[in-house]
Amino acid sequence: GDSVTQMEGPVTLSEEAFLTINCTYTATGYPSLFWYVQYPGEGLQLLLKATKADDKGSNKGFEATYRKETTSFHLEKGSVQVSDSAVYFCALSDGGGSNYKLTFGKGTLLTVNP
Amino acid sequence: NAGVTQTPKFQVLKTGQSMTLQCAQDMNHNSMYWYRQDPGMGLRLIYYSASEGTTDKGEVPNGYNVSRLNKREFSLRLESAAPSQTSVYFCASRMIGETQYFGPGTRLLVL
Description:
The complex is a heterodimer of chains A (114) and B (111). Chain A is 0% helix and 51% strand. In chain A, the strands form 3 sheets. In chain A, strands 2, 5, 6, 10, 11 and 12 form a 6-stranded mixed sheet that branches. In chain A, strands 3-9-8-7 form a 4-stranded antiparallel sheet, with no helix packed on it. A two-stranded antiparallel sheet of chain A has the order 1-4. In chain A, β5 and β6 (44-50) form a beta hairpin. With 114 residues, chain A is an all-beta fold. By secondary structure, chain B is an all-beta fold. Chain B is globular. The interface between A and B is medium-sized, with 20 and 26 residues.
């Protein structure tokens, strides 16, 4: 079945450092790929998405490129802020239409120190 | 526009007790989902409802039942709670062609 593997955390960075969180996937078809963010005590929010190979999703300074040849969707940000401290989930969509479901990675906790 | 709402926010149960987690969305979405989140496990799908009147099992359905009461509401029931069901439960909804929107979660502790 479909699966998502993302780098184990926790990740601790200083403010303005460069961030990379690795994500690779296994899927039988051509999934859409997502990054979700969960701030402390809250539900998940969509951060960015890409629906086909070579697409780049971006939002709030975060970027990720859908790489079909390496089955990867790594999350990057050039300069993190304390407010970026959260848990980040990589996910892929399985099926379309009414059978649409998301498969999530285990999450990566990011802590940014001032 | 409240989005996806969940009640209660927090609940403590004793083993064997039953309870229903409530979820409602005001975005006129067709599909609704229940997930559980456990440390180091990410989110796992329990049940989903592709449209009003239909429900299907997800990855971890054992010990749970669901009801899609109407287009807005999708409830999750634990008939006989077990400590293994201690978790954070998230409800989500989606319109076809769009991504999922998540509620704030219900923290459940089963003693």
